[in-house]
Write a structure and sequence with these properties.
By secondary structure, chain A is an alpha+beta fold. Chain A has helices spanning 16-29, 58-67; strands at 2-8, 36-43, 48-55, 74-77, 80-81. Chains A, B: This is SCO4226 family nickel-binding protein.
Chain lengths: 82, 82
């Protein structure tokens, strides 16, 4: 499976609970697209959220994020990791 | 310690070896600034590289990256993680 980093902008002031709820909403339906959201990090000051996942495609990642109401602004396949 | 995600743009075509060398160069001197680079991911197509670290400050992260020749284009503190 491919590895992706997707980026959300515009989430200024996001709280730990909101991040947890958004992540849990993705986890609840991810298997319907064969996606595995591994981790998410958030910067409440700039409103930037990064999500690391493994998935069949970037579109599959976006379909899950759309259904849970937080579409990604960027999705990058990141085949290289150290 | 604070947690940071820094982002490099303009690394189109980066190879696994180049990513490994850049990361190893950071690891070799990181303790001089109390930085701990945990992981890095790269998208050779868009030239985007993400580095996750724990550090005393964003400046400390940038000082290490500058000394190893690959200054970050963005550095976000990411206090929230799931």
């Amino acid at each position: 499976m491919a590895r992706f980093m997707d980026v959300h902008h515009g989430m200024r002031g996001i709280t730990e609970d909101q991040l947890r709820q958004a992540h849990d909403a993705d986890l609840a339906i991810q298997q319907e697209e064969g996606v595995d959201f591994r981790q998410a990090w958030a910067d409440p000051e700039s409103g930037t959220v990064y999500c690391l996942s493994e998935a069949p495609s970037a579109d599959a990642v976006q379909r899950i994020h759309e259904r849970t109401g937080h579409k990604a602004d960027e999705i990058h396949e990141v085949p290289l990791a150290v």
